[in-house]
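lol ok so funny story. i was supposed to be doing the assay writeup but got distracted and ended up predicting the structure for this chain instead. priorities right. anyway since i did it might as well share w the group, maybe its usefull for someone
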Amino acid sequence: MSIGKYLTNLGVIGALMGALGTAKQTQAMPKDWRRYLVWVVWAAGLALALASVAKQADDEQYEAELKQLEREQKAAAKASRKRR
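and the output, tada:
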């Protein structure tokens, strides 16, 4: 697993940069549950960005398999028409 694909992904970079806005927002907030909730929401966004990068290879493989299946179905239909 390469860390480079995480560091160069725009979704992950955006989520990490969101920490600056979250820090600025929570700086003036009272220290109660709402402040922690804002950080939990930010962390969830970061986790989603990281998960999307992790699943990207699986998605690409799935799309390639679908294209291959579609090609095979077209070839089978063409062969079926030729036999008639």
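The first helix runs from residue 4 to 7. The two ends are 51 Å apart (CA to CA).
back to the writeup now i swear
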